[in-house]
Amino acid sequence: MINRELINPQSIVVVGGSNNVHKPGGRLVRNLLDGKYKGELYVVNAKEDDVQGLKSYHSVHDIPETELAIISIPGPACPEAVDVLAKQKNVKAFIVISAGFGEETHEGAILEEQMLKSINEAGASLIGPNCIGLMNMHYHGVFTQPIPEFHANGVDFVSSSGGTALFIIESALTKGLRFSSVWSVGNSKQIGVEEVIEYMDRNFDPVLDSKIKMLYIEQIKNPDKLLYHASSLIRKGCHIAAIKAGSTDVGKRAASSHTGAIASSDSAVEALFRKAGIVRCFSREELTTVASIFTLKEVKGKNCAIITHAGGPAVMLADALEKGRLNVPKLDGPLAAELKSKLYP
After folding, report:
1. What is the pLDDT of residues 18-77, one digit of tens each?
2. What are the φ and ψ backbone dihedral angles of 168, each rounded to 5 degrees?
3. Same domain, residue pair 156 and 290
4. What is the domain extent for residue 345?
5. Is the pLDDT at 261 greater than 70, yes or no?
């Protein structure tokens, strides 16, 4: 479940926050401070009294009640911390950065189940584990960089992989893309790509919300849910571009070891995307280019004229437009003469 405490928390605790900004916990605190988070910010560090100018509590037992917990401590210590925060501190949203769970071992999967049980019993949200976090216009709850520019009209980006999210963000920044939110769902123990799309659909505001969505998907656990809500968003005027990784046998094996993703048929993915209206992409450059095109005004008609200062690129562009079933009409006679009169020799 996705709730207000996850989207716009009034208080955040970083469990494992530190003064070392080269470690995940330290960078989390730094990103929240640099992002001008406006709510109450707490830190838990067993050895420090002060973390980057903030009071540090030595235990999760000592903190005030808090809405969101971002956890960056060794995996085996996570279930106990989550249980205390959920039951004693009224935490209603969790982002678990830590790895070493179901994506690695059977024992890790058991720890993951223990966390999920405590969180579900508290009626709370869970992003992760094994993720970089969540960032939006309210807070930058990630331990990584770069932090993109955020704007209501930016792109909503949902990624199974944290590292890939950064890889794609870097490409987007070179194209001038802004973001509305970035979700790294990791192992998707409670909230996966489908649940984020469902939330965006059910709570869609045609005036305030972004109409462009980018997805990087390693597994589709609930294809019916994704089809229903992606189709609904597109009918409401949204555009969705997506990469579905793990389409080969080797890629499926890699995805399984990365986020515990379960393989899905590539032909089924292709059919689902086509039926929903999702534009399928196969690289970060293609994904961010398609998202950039979505920011432009809708093209009316199929006729294109090419204006260029160099001939070679025009030849390649003419080929691309023709292959894309667009028309590049021949310009001659009085029209060509009029155009030529407005150009330099």
Report:
1. 999 999 999 999 999 999 999 999 999 999 999 999 999 999 999 999 999 999 999 999
2. -75, -40
3. yes
4. 301-345
5. no
Residue 40: how many other CB atoms lie within 10 Å: 14
CA 239 – CA 286 distance, rounded (Å): 15
Q: Rounded distance, CA 173 to CA 182, Å?
A: 13
Tokens matching residue 325: 């079933």
| β-bridge mates for residue 214, sequence order | 157, 241
Token pair of 93 as six digits: 């949203």
| The pLDDT of residue 251 is above 60 | no
Give 153's contacts (C-beta < 8 A, 6+ positions apart): 178, 180, 210
Torsion, Cα of 190, 192, 194, 198 (10° steps): 60
**267 in a domain, yes or no?**
yes
| Neighbour-count burial for 270-287, b at 16+ CB within 10 Å, e otherwise | eebbeebebbbbeebeeb
Query: Is there a single domain that holds both residue 261 and residue 283?
Result: yes
Distance, CA of 289 to CA of 177 (rounded, Å) = 10
Q: Alpha-carbon distance 330 to 26, whole Å?
A: 61
pTM, to two decimals: 0.88
Q: How many structural domains compose the chain?
A: 3
- CA distance linking residue 343 with residue 139, whole number of Å: 50
* Residues 231 and 290 occupy one common structural domain: yes
Q: Which two tokens stand for residue 273?
A: 């995307």
> What CATH number is associated with residue 77?
3.40.50.720
Of 260, 244, 92, 286, the closest CA to residue 158 belongs to 244
